[in-house]
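REQUEST FORM: STRUCTURE PREDICTION
Request ID: SP-0412
Submitted by: Lab K.M.
Chain count: 1
Length (residues): 327
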Amino acid sequence: MRAAGLALCALAAALPALAAVDGTVVNATRNQPQAGAIVSLMQPGAGGMQTLATTKADAAGKFHFAQDPQGPRILQVIYAGVIYTEVAPPGMPASNMAVKVYEPTKKRDATKMAQHLVILQPTGTELGVAENFLFTNDSKETFNDPEKGSAQVWVPEAGRAGAAVTITAPGGMPIRRDLEKTRSEGVYKIDYPLKPGETRFEVNYTLPAATPLVYEGRVLEKETPTRLVAPAGVTLAGADIEAMGQEPTTQASIFNVKADRYKVEIQGAGSLAPAQGASGEDAGMPQIHEAPPRVYDRIWWILSLALLILAVGALLLYRRGEQAGGR
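STATUS: Completed
RESULT:
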C-alpha cells in the first residue's frame, strides 16, 4: 500500500498543473496597479458571450482564475463605469496578463474627430447609408459622457426603425448596438467611451428607393469637414456639395459638404462592400445583438472602409500640396 501511495504521489507530481488565467489590472493614467476593479473571464459560445467566472482585483491589482478554458478567452474589466477588454487567443498563454484601464474624463481636449464620412450606396430598391466617425484620443484618459454621448447623429424618419451603430474600439473587434434617442427629434447619441487610441462609429440605416432618389442630411458633429462618398457607378448632384476627386483603388467619388443641412440627388447604383464575404460579428461585450459564432460578418467591409479612409486622407493632403505649390 505504501508503495502504491508513493507511486500515486509521483504520478501526481509528474502531471502538469492546471493552467490558470491571471494577471494585473494596471491604471495606465496613474501608471500603477488598480485595486478593486471587477474582472470577468468570458468566452464566446453558441448561445452568446458566456461569463465563466468573476472576481475583484486585490490591493495590488492582481486577479486569478483557477482554470484556463479551452478556446478564445476574453478578460472584461469594469473600472469607473467603463468596460475594458483583453483577448487571449487560443493556444496563447493567459498567465501574467496585464489589462490597462484609464481614469475617466468629460473633457474632450485630447479627443478629436479625425474623419467624418457619409457613404451613400443605392441598390435600386433601397438606399443604404453608412455614416462614419473616426475619433482619436491621444491622452491617457477615457472620455466618457453618458448624458451627451461621444457623438450625435441625425437619422431621417424613414430610416430610424432599423438604425444601429457598429463600434470598433482600440484593439477590439466590431460590436453592434442600438442608437439612443435624445430630446431632439431625429437626433441620436452614441453612448460609448472614447478610450486612448482610435475609435470608429459606423451608423447604418436604409431608406426606401424613390424617383428621383434624393438624400437629405444634417451635420451635427462639426469638428472636421464632412465628406460624402459615392461608389463607382453612382453620381451625386446638389448645390450643397462640391466634388473633390476619386479614390484610385475603389474609384469612389468624394464630395465636400458645404452646409449643415444638405440635399443631394442620386443616380445609378453601387456599393463599396464586396459582393461576398464571411458572416458574423465579434461579440466581445454585453448588449451585443449579433450572435458570436458569426465572427467575421463585416470584416471585409471594415477593411475596405479603412482603406478608403486612408485614401481620402491622402487625397486631401495631395490637394493641399497642389494648392500650396500654386501660391
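NOTES: The chain has a mean pLDDT of 83.
Reviewed by: T.R.
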